[in-house]
């Protein structure tokens, strides 16, 4: 026995002290749930809170269960919160981060939509919280040196580390394994991160080595069928907060359909109206009800009608906002997503397969209909294929002439030779005149160097493009030189990269298609070939428009290459060597004289001067089966290049 133990037992009560200490050393501490920890320790900073001071869960009682689901005692591994504004959505995540640092330490990651937003969250939310709370302040080293373990995006603390990442940075999401992840504003995440996949999946993979992991996902929804948080909530147990009517006592979910114009609420059970001052007691007596008990994921949905008195908009203000939004799509979208907390669907921004198929004309793929005087091509490069679309243009008209998916390996030069062979196939109109492809735009987003190498072979007819989803950008912008010399200087006769305003192009093309549905065929501005595949039409419906931003968002899990190649081909037509967007009536008339010459036979119209070229088989096209010469029954074509004003600066 040690000297210290002998001295302890010599004390009159030494044995009792020893055994009591031994017993306490083996006993587990009483569990402290997140909501209780927040009530005891959380201080809302003056810099970032509407009500600074000690946190009170009783102020927002509907958040108690959500927070406690994130405690270690709860067996669930994933919690989803789809919430409107002014209901404390982000503060739940902030409380959880503080709880991890101060009570259940471990490696944790916070994922914001971008690295810039990650830095802003760290400076404006996390740092003030650490400064105000002694329990956190003593656990995180001060940021006094490079090796302090405390930077904007990295916080080391006793027993763990906090990594703050951006969903637009693959490197930040690959940083390290973590036990806890807080993903904020999921609907602002990119669909595909630098060609590596969904950032949500990449982040979740960081937790795979921890059996007691916890993942917390929050966001307000955006567009119907394109919302990340809508999808995550749909696969959860889908809980809603039921509160009692102050008049009849029956529980119900607060819904905007029951809110009157004067800011009162109509009970769906007793049919009586009650005012908002009852809400505090209603929230205290509310409960979360599960709608999908088969799911192991806890999911919570709550709208702005539940905002505590004094913290959000009043019911009267919400009723007024609803009235203001009725005739304004942008305001309507904000109200639906931010106040009702529901994904928004623009009736004018949704395309249906059956509706688009009504735009099919009476000409097969690769046939040139009368009036089509210009052809361009768009190519989307995938890991195992080239998606290719040909568009034809006339005076105020557009035709989808061809759509194929050519099997390919972008790293194999033979595949690029196959693409050349496809582009060299003749397109012959009914006058026997060959219409060349004026310009081809190839997406360089994923296979950049391979595309650049291909473009170098024919820079006057093939361009490298990259989509830019920023609103208000032109269809095709100013090119930038990509090749540099050994001295690091730009080589001005090298490859050019042309930025494409994807949202602008989509608004033009898909908006035109949407408006053509139901129109008389003679008045349509966009017509499809008669034998386009069902897959092509399905892909044209893979995106939803956002009336607030003018942008388009892809539905997760859907292919949208038909859309991408369409706007690449449109961008090619707007290239300075083609200049579709600046052509006027005299330009079209000159093209028509060249490509659709009048016949001298007064009994035969020009459109009957020659039979159209035979149809090339539909997708997928195998290069060695593509006809290189026109069929025998078609006269030898007269190749006439369309008039294309040249820019001396580009020669």
- The structural class is alpha/beta
Given the structure, what is the number of helices?
A: 20
Number of strands: 26
* Strand proportion: 15-25%
Please report the distance between the alpha carbons of the first and last residues: 95 Å
Mean pLDDT: 85
The CATH topology annotation of the largest domain reads as: Rossmann fold
Describe the largest sheet.
10 strands, mixed
List the domain count as a whole number: 2
**What CATH architecture label of the largest domain applies?**
3-Layer(aba) Sandwich
The CATH H-level homologous superfamily of the largest domain = P-loop containing nucleotide triphosphate hydrolases
Q: Report the principal-axis shape.
A: globular
Helix content: 25-40%
Using only CA atoms, what is the Rg?
Answer: 32 Å
The low-confidence runs, each spanning 5 or more residues with pLDDT under 50, are 602-651
CATH class of the largest domain: Alpha Beta
* Quaternary organisation of the protein chains: single chain
GO molecular function, one term: ATP hydrolysis activity
InterPro entries: GpA_ATPase, GpA_endonuclease, P-loop_NTPase, Phage_lambda_GpA-like, TFA_Chaperone
Pfam families: GpA_ATPase, GpA_nuclease
Domain Phage terminase large subunit GpA ATPase: 49-288
């Amino acid at each position: 026995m040690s000297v210290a133990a002998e001295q302890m037992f010599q004390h009159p009560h030494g044995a009792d002290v020893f055994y009591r200490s031994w017993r306490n050393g083996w006993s587990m501490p009483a569990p402290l749930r997140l909501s209780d920890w927040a009530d005891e320790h959380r201080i809302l900073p003056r810099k970032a809170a509407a009500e600074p001071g000690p946190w009170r869960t009783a102020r927002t009682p509907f958040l108690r269960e959500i927070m406690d689901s994130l405690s270690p005692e709860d067996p669930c591994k994933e919690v989803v919160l789809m919430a409107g504004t002014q209901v404390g959505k982000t503060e739940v995540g902030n409380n959880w981060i503080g709880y991890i640092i101060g009570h259940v330490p471990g490696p944790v990651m916070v994922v914001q939509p971008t690295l810039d937003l990650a830095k802003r969250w760290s400076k404006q939310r996390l740092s003030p919280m650490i400064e105000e709370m002694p329990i956190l302040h003593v656990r995180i080293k001060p940021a006094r040196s490079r090796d302090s373990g405390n930077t904007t995006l990295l916080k080391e603390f006793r027993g763990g580390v906090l990594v703050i990442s951006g969903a637009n940075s693959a490197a930040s999401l690959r940083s390290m394994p973590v036990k806890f992840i807080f993903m904020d504003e999921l609907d602002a995440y990119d669909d595909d991160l630098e060609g590596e996949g969904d950032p949500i999946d990449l982040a979740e993979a960081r937790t795979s080595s921890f059996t007691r992991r916890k993942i917390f996902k929050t966001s307000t929804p955006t567009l119907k069928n394109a919302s990340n948080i809508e999808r995550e909530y749909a696969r959860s147990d889908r809980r809603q907060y039921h509160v009692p009517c102050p008049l009849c006592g029956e529980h119900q979910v607060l819904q905007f359909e029951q809110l009157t114009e004067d800011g009162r609420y109509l009970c769906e059970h007793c049919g009586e109206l009650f005012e908002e001052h009852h809400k505090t007691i209603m929230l205290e007596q509310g409960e979360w009800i599960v709608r999908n008990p088969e799911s192991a994921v806890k999911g919570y949905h709550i709208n702005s009608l539940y905002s505590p008195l004094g913290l959000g908009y009043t019911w009267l203000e919400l009723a007024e906002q609803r009235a203001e939004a009725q005739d304004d799509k942008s305001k309507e979208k904000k109200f639906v997503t931010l106040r009702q907390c529901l994904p928004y669907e623009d009736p004018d921004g949704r395309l249906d397969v059956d509706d688009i198929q009504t735009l099919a004309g009476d000409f097969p793929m690769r046939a040139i209909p009368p009036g089509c005087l210009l052809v361009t091509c768009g190519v989307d490069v995938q890991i195992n294929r080239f998606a290719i679309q040909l568009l034809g243009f006339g005076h105020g008209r557009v035709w989808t002439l061809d759509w194929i998916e050519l099997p390919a390996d972008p790293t194999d030069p033979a595949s690029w030779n196959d693409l050349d062979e496809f582009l060299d196939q003749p397109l012959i109109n009914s006058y026997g005149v060959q219409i060349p492809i004026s310009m081809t735009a190839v997406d360089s987003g994923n296979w950049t160097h391979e595309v650049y190498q291909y473009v170098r072979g024919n820079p006057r007819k093939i361009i490298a493009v990259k989509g830019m989803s920023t609103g208000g950008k032109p269809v095709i912008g100013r090119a930038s030189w990509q090749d540099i010399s050994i001295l690091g200087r730009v080589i001005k006769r090298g490859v050019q990269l042309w930025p494409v305003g994807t949202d602008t192009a989509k608004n033009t093309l898909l908006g035109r298609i949407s408006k053509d549905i139901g129109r008389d065929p003679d008045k349509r501005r966009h017509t499809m070939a008669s034998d386009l595949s069902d897959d092509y039409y399905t892909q044209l419906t893979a995106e939803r428009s956002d009336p607030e931003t003018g942008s388009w968002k892809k539905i997760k899990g859907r292919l949208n290459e038909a859309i991408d190649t369409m706007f690449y081909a449109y961008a090619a037509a707007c290239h300075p060597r083609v200049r579709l967007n600046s052509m006027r009536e005299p330009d079209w008339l000159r093209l028509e004289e060249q490509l659709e010459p009048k016949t001298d036979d007064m009994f035969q119209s020009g459109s009957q001067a020659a039979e159209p070229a035979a149809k090339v088989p539909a997708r997928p096209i195998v290069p060695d089966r593509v006809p290189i010469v026109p069929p025998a029954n078609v006269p030898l074509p007269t190749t006439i290049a369309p008039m294309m004003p040249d820019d001396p600066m580009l020669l």
